[in-house]
From TrEMBL:
Domain HD/PDEase intervals: 335-467
One of the record's GO molecular function terms: pyrophosphatase activity
Name of the protein described by the UniProt record: Exopolyphosphatase / guanosine-5'-triphosphate,3'-diphosphate pyrophosphatase
Source taxon at top rank: Bacteria
Organism: Acetoanaerobium noterae
Record family assignment: Belongs to the GppA/Ppx family.
SMART domains (UniProt xref): HDc
Length: 513
């Protein structure tokens, strides 16, 4: 193994399977998979049925991960990332499960939300679907079926337009409808009606794009892809036609679980998931003009490897996905009718102040990105109430599912947006209970956002640009403005105190015509 490569491990503790990939990643050589292992587990069945994971299942998970850790040591893995999704995340005893796994196996398991899972999976698509760039340009619906839920994302003109998460994952559907399966002769129709009742609100958001491309990920789609009829051309582009998918669905809906397992040469546990997976894909592909489904056959663990490579080598893909996130944030703002011009101007000034005051705040690149998002969304609450918009901005942002953003970071964004017009964060209960580190970040970021919002308080962009200079304990901001800005100056002075309280530096606004 060369100096420019690393041996790493990606572990996905899923709802019904625990998987691990060991791979060599390099700046120039990409990702080379060396070994893959997987073990079945009943985490999701416990959580979705009983609300918590049983002691027996916890012990089994600990045993599996302990063996995975031994294999990692045998390979001399230098870095790893282990994540879990809805199966553990939604369990009532989540914290205890994580601690028992840590003590037993020595592995720290990271709980990620749906938005983070989506970003990781999409990162892997580029490596496994060579024409992905052109497909995004033309427009594509991506449907990623997990055990607990379905991630739906829409790209158009190479930009991520929106993402949504719906709790209709293949395992969750089967567990939810288990009693009905016993008393109906047409269980497939029951699943169809159930899926339809959960996705009807997305129809009006998807259909107007007339999408010609569809990408399917997750569920048992890898096995569905293998068994589906394909021409040589379809094999070369990893594609299943809509016609062949429909034919397979008609066959599967007539079979019981044992027959599906025998027909597809898979385990009965996997076979249970095939019918709901087919129904979900069928329902979504019908909302597009696509002739079939691209099947890059990627998973969360492939995305973990791609993300590790991005972070170690600071790849171009990392920047592209950050832009995707900002595109989805901009789309969110449009839905709530924010003033685009004001939001973009505030964002531009906020980034400039952040970059010029690094020695003052000592925050990192991720914090800068959170400030960008908060700047774009700080006025989103005005959609509900003009006079009390800050509380509504906080609530709306907290309720969002922004691709790639963790729950902790979303909390920072929401509080930063709230405090762009709030004088005393310490009076807010949701702020007081946060960890010290997050409270400090929020205060620093919101102190910058306050100044920038003040400099465009009229929403007329009277200040065309700003220059920033730190002198002694003063932050001197020179505003280039053609018009008089008495309101901006007055508001800036009101917000300057908070910045000084937080950083020890006094903001001073100077104006040049």
């Amino acid at each position: 193994m060369g100096k420019s490569t690393k041996l790493v491990s990606a572990i996905d503790v899923g709802s019904n399977t625990i998987r691990m990939i060991i791979a060599e990643i390099g700046e120039n050589t990409g990702i080379n998979i060396i070994d893959e292992v997987k073990k079945p587990i009943d985490i999701g069945k416990d959580t979705y049925n009983y609300g918590k994971i049983s002691i027996e299942t916890i012990k089994e998970a600990c045993k599996i991960l302990k063996n995975f850790k031994k294999l990692m040591l045998d390979y001399r893995v230098t870095e790893y990332r282990a994540v879990s999704t809805s199966g553990i995340r939604e369990s009532a005893n989540c914290d205890y499960v994580l601690e028992q796994i840590r003590i037993s196996s020595g592995l720290s398991l990271e709980i990620i939300n749906n938005a983070q899972e989506r970003l990781l999976t999409y990162k892997a698509i580029e490596d496994y679907l060579p024409d992905f760039t052109n497909i995004k340009q033309a427009g594509v619906l991506i449907v990623d079926i997990g055990s607990g839920g379905v991630e739906v994302s829409l790209y158009y003109d190479s930009k991520l337009q929106f993402t949504e998460y719906v709790k209709i994952g293949s395992l969750r559907v089967m567990e939810t409808l288990a009693d009905l399966e016993k008393i109906t002769l047409d269980f497939a129709s029951v699943i169809e009606d159930y899926i339809e009742s959960n996705i009807y609100i997305l129809k009006d958001r998807i259909k107007p794009y007339n999408l010609s491309n569809f990408i399917g990920i997750g569920g048992e789609f890898t096995e569905i892809y293998k068994i589906s009829k394909k021409t040589d051309k379809e094999k070369s582009i990893k594609f299943v036609s809509k016609e062949n998918l429909t034919d397979l669905y008609k066959k599967i809906k007539q079979m019981n679980t044992y027959e599906v397992a025998q027909y597809m040469q898979i385990s009965e546990k996997q076979a249970e998931m095939v019918l709901p997976t087919l129904v979900i894909f069928k329902k979504f592909v019908d909302l597009t003009q696509a002739d079939g489904i691209y099947a890059p056959r990627v998973s969360l663990r492939h995305g973990i490897l791609a993300d590790m490579a991005d972070n170690i080598y600071n790849t171009k893909r990392k920047e592209e996905f950050l832009n995707d996130i900002l595109s989805s944030v901009a789309y969110l703002g449009k839905r709530y009718r924010i003033d685009d011009s004001h939001a973009l101007h505030v964002r531009e000034m906020a980034i400039k102040i952040f970059d010029k005051t690094k020695k003052i705040h000592e925050l990192g690149s991720n914090d800068r990105f959170l400030l960008e998002i908060a700047a774009l969304l700080h006025d989103i609450g005005k959609y509900i109430n003009l006079n009390e918009h800050i509380e509504h901005s906080y609530s709306i942002i907290k309720a969002q599912d922004i691709m790639g953003i963790s729950d902790s970071d979303l909390n920072i964004i929401a509080h930063t947006a709230r405090f762009h017009n709030e004088e005393n964060p310490k009076s807010i209960d949701s702020y007081k209970i946060l960890p010290y580190e997050n409270r400090i970040k929020i205060s620093k970021l919101s102190s910058i956002l306050k100044l920038c919002d003040a400099m465009d308080i009229t929403h007329k962009r009277k200040i065309k640009s700003i220059d920033i200079k730190v002198k002694d304990t003063n932050l001197i901001i020179t505003a280039h403005a053609k018009d008089d800005i008495p309101l901006e100056k007055w508001y800036f002075m009101k917000k300057a105190d908070f910045f000084e309280d937080v950083t020890g530096y006094r903001p001073i606004l100077k104006v040049k015509g």
